[in-house]
Amino acid sequence: KRRQHQPIPSPPGLPIIGNLHQLGELPHQSLWRLSKEYGPVMLLKLGKVPTIILSSSETAKQALRDHDLLCCSRPSLAGGRELSYNNRDISFSPYNEYWKELRKLCTQELFSAKNIHSTQPIKDEEVKKLIGSIAESASQKTPVKLNEKCLALTVSIVCRIAFGVSFEGTVLSNDGFNKLIREAFEMLGSFSASDFIPYIGWIIDWFTGLQGRTEKSARDLDAFYEQVINLHKEEKEVGSEDFVDLLLKLEKEEAVVGNDKFTRNNIKAILMDILLAGIETSAGTLTWVMAELARNPRVMRKVQSEIRNKFGKTELIRSEDIDQLHYMKMVIKETWRLHPPAPLLLPREVMTEFEINGYKMQPKTQIHVNVWAIGRDPNTWKDPEEFLPERFLDSNIDTKGQSFELLPFGAGRRMCPAMYMGTAMVEFGLANMLYHFDWKLPEGIAAEDIDVEEAPGLTVNKKNELLLVPVKYLGHHETSE
Ligand code: HEM
């Protein structure tokens, strides 16, 4: 109340562009540094758009829990609009009936526990394929590019589960596909001038090439969706319909979702969501876990001991056994604390005025929650720069959107609807990679040489390749620490 009429702390900006120039290549890091000076509620002017950055668990809780319903819309941004057929997906849709119905449909048909369970044979097959391909490198004693392997795993699983097609059968080569997804993320993570600077912003985007790159990215992705849809046009046996068939049925019936007649573009927008939201987030997590384990040999030994001692000799750690791997789950949480795949979540837009810490949030203001900064907040975490999974021992902090210290999936109405699907994929892949192989550093590389540099984008992945040499585990028990 006392601060009600005080202005929100705000770094000084420049005419026209405001604070845009202060975002840098990795906005979550720049904003974290600024928040140390300006506090956990900070106002930036991105061109003409007022943007609030929240950088503490307490302020995140006020926005995402206490006032969730007042700020659960999304701003309409150029990159998102272009790639999502004018915000017809779940992620970029404003808060409306269309979004509610679509999210419900996907939750029931794709992200449900039943579906996660019934698609286990696909995951088993894909993880076995991954283990087989790593075993080849192990026999030749050559390093494995972990980023690529992890991405190949999540691409295969998500494409088969959600699209009903094996990705190998599509137009894109492995490499082309990875580049396409990466490019799309970079476009979505860029702060486009046309969103923030009226009248002339598009000229800047045109000069920087952002506009052309975004349009190309959208065209390439469109060709991929066309192919997925065409592969579904053949007659199906009754009962073998998958998620894409269900969407095609809605198109054929000219169903109305919210107020929108369901067309081919709606289908493509949903495919875009799954493709972009599902693949890199999970692959990125797996890569970061492996990088942190390589940097922290003590933790690597301990987590491998847990898995191997629990299951003895086996061909595949089964997904239903994962719940016994308490330490591995702590390792994943610790990775998400330091490397949340979407460090600023997705932007929210205020619909109705409310207050955070006594500061007024005005309608149309954008809100970003800097979960990357929250994970490093010394008021919340002891020795925040240390990779220490044991900090979660006897702690009830989880990732389900109730613990505002740890928000890899966000919280509130816009929280990731596929948290269980994503977590299951990560845990299952990781347990098997750690069980079947010891992971050595390449010749001449020390643990401290493994870097944690980040690549820019809406999801933030490891910038440099992670190269490790796998050594096949032959099934003798390790002793635990
Ligand atoms: C480790 C894996 C994953 C992580 C860390 C993750 C994280 C996130 C985050 C942070 C958000 C934004 C939440 C917010 O703005 O508050 C989100 C939204 C979303 N995610 Fe995930 N995600 C993962 C896996 C998946 C998968 C596998 C899918 C689908 C196959 C998926 C689909 C979505 C969708 C559709 C949204 C938009 C929700 C909305 O705006 O209503 N995610 N995810």
UniProtKB/TrEMBL annotation:
It is a single-pass membrane protein. Pfam families: p450. InterPro entries: Cyt_P450, Cyt_P450_CS, Cyt_P450_E_grp-I, Cyt_P450_sf. It comes from the Eukaryota. PROSITE patterns: CYTOCHROME_P450 (PS00086). Keywords: Heme, Iron, Membrane, Metal-binding, Monooxygenase, Oxidoreductase, Signal, Transmembrane, Transmembrane helix. Its cofactor is heme. CDD domains: CYP71-like. It is found in: Membrane. Belongs to the cytochrome P450 family. This is Cytochrome P450 71B26-like. It comes from Camelina sativa (False flax).
